[in-house]
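User: I'm preparing a small set of examples for a lab meeting where we compare how different chains pack in three dimensions. I only have the primary sequence for this one, and I'd like the structure in token form so I can line it up with the others. Please keep the answer compact; I'll paste it straight into my notes.
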Amino acid sequence: MTVLFIDVDYFKSYNDRYGHRAGDDCLARVGKMVDQPLHRPADLAARYGGDEFVVLLPVTDTDGALDVAQRMLAAIAAMNIPHGASPFGRVTSSIGIAQMVPGPNDACQVLLERADRALYAAKQAGRNKVMAAPTYLYDQRVAR
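Assistant: Understood. Below is the structure token output for the 144-residue chain.
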């Protein structure tokens, strides 16, 4: 299972500058762009909370997830929604990716936390970026 955590860069500043109604409209437009590159029936995009979205990509390797994430970043930037409080001058996003082949004792929360840490790393690296966490593979030898 692969998870993408997507956050709108400098969204609080956007809301402060343009108002909550414009912020809601912005999130609706970004949500459409998050959903746009998903083509398989099992792929799922959802608003996670605030200005965050989550995408579930079952049976997707890191390269596939990176491709999807890069297309999302490009689609969001291509909307050219003005954002005068952002150094990019338009609405952008940051994306964290985590993948896990779960074992019998693994919780979904672990995967979400890893994606969130990768998102934080993308923001620390300058925003408008994609960062992937190292892949975690369940190892039966450790479980014995």
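A couple of notes for your slides: Residues 138-144 have pLDDT under 50 and may be disordered. The first helix runs from residue 11 to 18.

User: Perfect, thanks.
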